[in-house]
Amino acid sequence: MPPQKKIPWQQKKMWPQTAQYQTREQMFPSTSQTAQYQAQEQMTVSAYERKSILDMHHMIIEWLEKFIEKTGYYPDWERRKQVHDSNIKRQDISNPEKAEKALSNKLITFVRSVGNTPSPSLREELKEKFYQWIDATGIRVGNCPKRLACFLLGTHEILEGKDEKIERDSENKKRDLNPDSYEYAEGLNKVFANIQAPLREERDMEVSLKNKKWNEITIKNQFNGNAERGKIAFEQIVKNITFNDYQNFHFFPQREVQQIGMVGLVGMDLR
């Protein structure tokens, strides 16, 4: 079988999820462009919205780090990782598969909780912190396993509001339990019970930040990395992913092989 041809990321406009990207500048806006977004959109974001979404973003980073820890990709991960006071206390995350499942569940929760809420400026802030994290952890094209690379690309798409792939994967995922079974209902009850404390904390935060503007709160910079370096590193990682790599990557185990419909084929260069 001939080796798989790597498709330069500039041509990845063929992907349904990245059809909007035509140039490097569109996929990776500069810091000055981020500042322009902030100036244009600052009045549309409340302090509560900004704090809540940044907290969810931090949660995703925590689960990315837990996934990397359980895979054993980096023997020195304890030194590389950025979240040393993780809120993850679950004792059942004992292997890479369980960590991956939990990460994917957190990503789909982020998608459905945030929706189209964030302004462009807030989405740029999320990506900037993501780039800082990549730089700080030392994840580079030469040491990034293919599955982690696909997760990083998928996470980046979600931060940009592109949720087609994860929604499609979620719709077609294998079910661990029959929705009509007692075990399924019991699991839902446990989930409902476990989210009550976080919901109360969220309501308290909303009350405490009521009527405050986005720039009236201070968000601590949690990562020591350089966003520009991290953006370059991420771009190089993306460039190393082929079309088939990402097409065959799924956030969840699938019931059956997916077929791209006619809508997904629009704009795709099949040569």
From TrEMBL:
Domain of life: Eukaryota
Protein name (record): Uncharacterized protein
Protein source organism: Rhizophagus irregularis
